[in-house]
Design a protein that fits this description.
GO terms for molecular function: ATP binding; hydrolase activity; RNA binding; RNA helicase activity. It comes from Pelagomonas calceolata. This is RNA helicase. It catalyses: ATP + H2O = ADP + phosphate + H(+). By secondary structure, the chain is of the alpha/beta class. Among the domains are: 83 residues; 97 residues, Nucleic acid-binding proteins (OB fold (Dihydrolipoamide Acetyltransferase, E2P), Beta Barrel); 31 residues, no CATH class; 180 residues, 3-Layer(aba) Sandwich (Rossmann fold), CATH 3.40.50.300; 174 residues, Rossmann fold, CATH 3.40.50.300; 85 residues, no CATH class. The chain contains 37 helices and 30 strands. The strands form 7 sheets. Strands 12-11-13-10-14-15-9-16 form an 8-stranded mixed beta sheet, with helices on both faces. It has a 6-stranded parallel beta sheet with strand order 17-24-21-18-20-19, with helices on both faces. The longest helix is centred in the N-terminal third of the chain and has 29 residues.
Length: 1053
């Protein structure tokens, strides 16, 4: 027995050494044990190791000493004599234990049964007799469809125990070498537990509120489903009546031979009452009331004016149009014969019946809807890659308006450190100024950087400048956007989004790599551009050698000049022709219908020339295009051809490029666009502009804690910019579908800057990381509201990024290193601490891209059926994880995406984002470990980031958010739609006909208090909680006793 104990200790030390330092030598292990025995204390043992030249960490030294100290049998004082060395294969084969099966150990066994979902294996040399399931996904590292092709009955195999629930065990063959029985993934669980526990005690960057000691990992995967009260009542009634034996009831515990509690567990889970933690940190004392009572940012000059009424009316009209389409679709379904309509009326139809009915519905819709015809016409059009010019690149550059002023512009840049350049869209300032600076020799001192407000603009402009510069993209000319860097050591001209320049400033406060910077399209006043104004204004004081150029397409240059030390303004004259502006005599109630009528009037009565229509979003643009196509089809040959071309951000690039092609002879082009066509696109041939006077703006609502897109009147500057689109090719006309009085009284002079109307959480985190602590004194061009700043700091404090003094914590500094929203950063860092980063990386990547699912109208049933395959009972976040893992198993195949109605481009983007995040985690030495099938850990990590988005089921209808108590509903596309868990968190709110929660996940309420103690707390049992006070008792009613019939006013006599 002494020899066995000694061998067991030596094996444990060998295992520790191999995992930590990569040396699994038995002789070394025995020598280390000898040193530990002689030392007597951990400190003496560490010193003895150092004297003998061992480079062990303190953690490893303590672990080995603890193993030696815990050994039950004293070891010999000296190493034993050498004995014949075992062959490698003999040493690493599984050893029979003779006892019960242990978790994460490898055993030999024989296959007893092969099924479609895997095989059953009986373990050898295990007491009591144990048989477990090897799921089909755990048989081989390769994806297999038929287990019988890989294993046969009575075949001897090696398996690893990966899960255990009671007497049932889950086994894995793919984690074992089937020849030698060697464990391909050595056991690390105990070591990781020890290490993480020490990190939690010693590392202040660990997520505040996350206590790993309190986390009970359930090795069986998903937690058993809790029984509802009616289900528990039925189970007890069945047991009492003797209809079913107790062993067959869902509440029976086979190990204990008795019944479990209501939740199917040994203990009844208490119903936790959660409420908000009202504790105020020192730096926000007295400020929280300002944030709570703040109203939504005012972005409309006259909330009661005709334009705002028209915007609200249009929202109602859009809702009515959607309802009309739904009613038409339902009428078609009602026209289906009764036997085919039955599946839709039957709440429990047979498998496949609804699918067949949906197929029939799709067939009818495809043949009757105008939209399908217009979409088909769009798809039939040949792909376009823009207008091909016959001029050489040199001739094209020489023909730009900026080329005539090249020498004057270069002199102005040379003579002044700061310069404001005003030029119309298409004047050439974006593509030419960087090249002029390079020709001046500024690249000898560093790179020339040019910021763009949009990712697409940064990529497309860099590609064009690389062609003109005569190099490959990524060499002398490159670009950098979030999660993508296309530059090299030889890059001298770099285009980037304004957010990426902010991140570079975070790493290098002097921006020493740059000799000149251009802030392009500054009139758009994005949130990052406004922050860069303040940062660069301070930087040019410290760096006299840095050239700064601010460009704008509008005439609000005086404000920029005043802000940047009264610097000079350089104006590039545009190719503008006179534009006749026409107003309506009365306000329009339905601006979409008015725009359609105006387009038809222009097409049928005005001379040749293309039309540009400004609308607010994709839904309006699609509706406009459908109706125009329908009306042109009705006119037939009586009217000349009208080519209808939509333009919005989500449209593929090859379809957007069609707008640059000239219209054929005898035809007219009608471009229907969002405000992207105001300044970002230059479309030649436009003679007529139809301006309804509206756009969509992002506005932050402090009470809801979210940004939302709101239809609002445009500014006077935008109206002027839109009318100018008609005067680029020749004299044109602008039809403004609002009165001249509305222009003067209901439109702001300029748009509200984004920094004054959006969430500032990420900006505040970045500024704090840059060492700017007093944000109220930061030199903003237009300071944001104090309530918005306070709300952002409250959110960061709750996330653990700020301490009680308002200073950045170590955890917050780590959050600032990720190019993500603070909630996603918190989620990812917490996942590394909880040992589930492998899964959370995928979830974060999938949430960072557009929706991967698409649902074509003519194939809705097939798309829904494919999506349902990925549904997870826990919620949408794990569904996204399942989608990515399935795509990974399919070898990242594009055909697999098409087969499952997934957007391959979105999946590729998610893959790129995930790779970038992995490199950041590696840079900061965070472990990327998998939680296996312990989904509770994954859900905890998500709650750690999005606890502010918690919602509880409302007794009357839907859900209510925990923060404001606002009524919300689960989005119909969610995996939890109609499942209605008691508690959940959501990723975002979507405002349509009602407030929908998108990407929701079921949670346990106790996690909110455990993971966000600064934000939530348990309600005092002795007092009435806020949630209880908010509840309202609603009298019951039915069809015989209508709602409100109990009132005296409703009674007769």
């Amino acid at each position: 027995m002494d020899e066995l104990a000694r061998l067991e200790l030596v094996n444990k030390v060998v295992s520790r050494l191999e995992e930590e330092v990569g040396i699994g030598d038995r002789t070394l292990a025995e020598f280390v044990i000898h040193l530990a025995q002689e030392a007597g204390t951990p400190v003496a043992f560490t010193e003895s190791l150092a004297k003998n030249g061992a480079d062990f960490s303190d953690d490893l030294s303590r672990q080995i000493f603890a193993l030696v100290e815990d050994a039950s049998t004293p070891l010999p004082a000296a190493p034993p004599p050498p004995r014949p060395k075992e062959p490698e294969q003999q040493r690493k084969r599984p050893r029979p234990s003779g006892g019960p099966a242990e978790l994460y150990e490898v055993y030999a066994g024989s296959v007893t049964k092969v099924t479609d979902f895997g095989c059953f294996v009986e373990l050898e040399d295990v007491s009591p007799r144990t048989e477990g399931l090897v799921h089909v996904s755990m048989i081989s590292r390769e994806r297999i469809r038929d287990p019988s092709q890989h294993v046969q009955r009575r075949q001897r195999v090696f398996v690893k125990v990966v899960g255990r629930a009671g007497q049932r065990v889950s086994l894995s063959m793919k984690e074992c070498d089937q020849r030698s029985g060697r464990d391909l993934q050595p056991r690390r669980r105990e070591l990781l537990d020890d290490q993480t526990e020490r990190k939690t005690r010693s590392n202040p960057m660990i997520n505040p509120g996350v206590r790993l000691d309190d986390i009970q990992r359930e090795s069986g995967g998903r937690a058993p489903k809790r029984l509802t009260s009616p289900e528990l009542f039925e189970a007890r009634q069945l047991a009492a009546s003797g209809v079913l034996p107790p062993e067959l009831l869902p509440t029976y515990d086979a190990e204990r031979g008795g019944a479990l509690a209501a939740g199917g567990r040994e203990e009844v889970e208490e119903d936790i009452e959660i409420e908000l933690n009202t504790h105020e940190p020192a730096f926000l004392r007295g400020q929280s009331t300002i944030a709570r009572e703040a109203s939504p940012i005012k972005i409309v000059a006259n909330p009661d004016g005709s334009l705002q009424r028209a915007a609200l009316t249009q929202g109602q009209l859009a809702k009515e149009r959607r309802e009309l389409k739904t009613a038409q679709a339902n009428a078609l379904i009602d026209g289906i014969p009764k036997d085919l309509n039955r599946p839709w009326e039957d709440p429990m139809p047979e498998a496949g019946e609804r699918h067949f009915a949906q197929e029939l519905r799709s067939v009818n819709l495809a043949g009757s809807q105008v939209e399908s015809a217009w979409k088909q016409q769009q798809k039939k059009a040949a792909l376009s890659f823009g207008h091909v010019s016959t001029k050489t690149i040199r001739e094209q550059r020489a023909g730009l308006p900026i080329a005539q002023l090249r020498n004057e512009l270069m002199d102005a840049i040379r003579d002044h450190q700061c310069l404001v350049v005003i030029g119309e869209t298409g004047s050439g300032k974006t593509t030419q100024m960087t090249q002029y600076m390079a020709e001046m020799g500024l690249t000898s001192r560093g790179m020339i950087g040019c910021t763009q407000p949009r990712r697409v603009a940064a990529m497309s402009v860099a590609k064009r400048v690389a062609e003109e510069f005569g190099c490959d993209l990524g060499q002398e000319v490159g670009y950098t956007i979030r999660f993508e860097d296309c530059t090299g050591p030889s890059t001298v001209i770099k285009y980037m989004t304004d957010g990426m320049l902010m991140r570079e400033y975070l790493a290098d406060g002097d921006l020493g790599r740059y000799s000149a910077l251009i802030l392009d399209e500054a009139h758009e006043r994005t949130i990052h551009t406004d922050v860069l104004f303040g940062l660069l204004k301070d930087l040019v004081r410290k760096r006299p050698d840095l050239k700064l150029v601010v460009t704008s397409a509008t005439l609000d240059a005086e404000k920029f000049s005043t802000y940047f030390f009264e610097c000079p303004i350089f104006t590039i004259p545009g190719r503008l022709f006179p534009v006749e502006v026409l107003y309506t005599k009365e306000p329009e109630q339905d601006y979409l219908d008015a725009a359609l009528i105006t387009v038809m009037q222009i097409h049928l009565s005005e001379p040749a020339g293309d039309i540009l229509v400004f609308l607010t979003g994709q839904e309006e643009i699609d509706t406009c295009c459908e109706v125009l196509y329908s009306r042109m089809q009705q006119l037939g040959d009586l009217a000349p051809e009208l080519i209808i071309l939509p333009v919005y951000g989500a449209l593929p690039a090859e379809m957007q490029s069609r707008i640059f092609e000239p219209a054929p002879t005898g035809a007219r082009k009608c471009v229907v666009a969002t405000n992207i066509a105001e300044a970002s696109l230059t479309i030649d041939g436009i003679y007529y502009v139809v301006d309804p006077g509206f756009c969509k703006q992002k506005a932050y609502n402090p009470k809801l804690g979210m940004d939302s897109l709101v239809v609002t009147p445009i500014s006077q500057a935008s109206a002027k910019q839109r009318s100018g689109r008609a005067g680029r090719t020749g004299p044109g006309k602008c039809y403004r579908l609002y009165t001249e009085a509305a222009l003067r009284t209901e439109m702001l002079p300029t748009s509200i800057p984004e920094i004054q109307r959006t969430n500032l959480g990420n900006v505040v985190l970045q500024l704090k990381a840059m060492g700017i602590h007093d944000l109220l004194k930061f030199d903003f061009m237009d300071p944001p509201p104090v309530a918005t700043l306070v709300g952002a700091m409250q959110s960061l404090y709750a996330l653990g990024a700020l301490d009680d003094e308002g200073l950045l914590t170590r955890f917050g500094r780590k959050m600032a290193e990720f190019p993500l929203e603070p909630q996603l950063s918190k989620m990812l860092i917490t996942a590394a601490d909880l040992r589930c980063a492998e899964e959370i990386l995928t979830v974060v990547a999938m949430l960072s891209v557009e929706q991967p699912f698409y649902r074509p109208k003519e194939k809705q049933a097939q798309a829904d059926a494919k999506k349902a395959k990925f549904f997870q009972s826990e919620g949408d976040h794990l569904m996204l994880l399942a989608v990515y893992e399935a795509w990974k198993n399919a070898k990242f195949s594009n055909p697999w995406c098409y087969e499952n109605y997934l957007q391959a481009r979105a999946m590729r983007r998610a893959q790129d984002v995930r790779k970038q995040l992995v490199t950041i985690l590696d840079r900061y030495k965070m472990d990327v470990l998998s939680a296996g099938r312990d989904w509770d850990l994954v859900r905890r990590a998500i709650v750690a980031g999005y606890f502010t988005n918690a919602a509880k089921k409302d007794p009357q209808e839907g859900y209510r958010t925990m923060v404001e108590g606002s009524p919300v509903s689960i989005h119909p596309s969610s995996a939890l739609f109609n499942k209605n868990p008691e508690w959940l968190v959501y990723h975002e709110l979507v405002l349509t006909s009602k407030e929908y929660m998108r990407n929701v996940m079921a949670i346990e309420p106790k996690w909110l208090v455990e993971l966000a103690p600064r934000f939530f707390k348990r309600a005092d049992a002795g007092q009435l909680s806020t949630a209880k006070r908010r509840q309202k008792i609603e009298p019951l009613y039915d069809r015989f006793n209508p709602e409100g019939s109990w009132r005296l006013s409703k009674r007769r006599g």
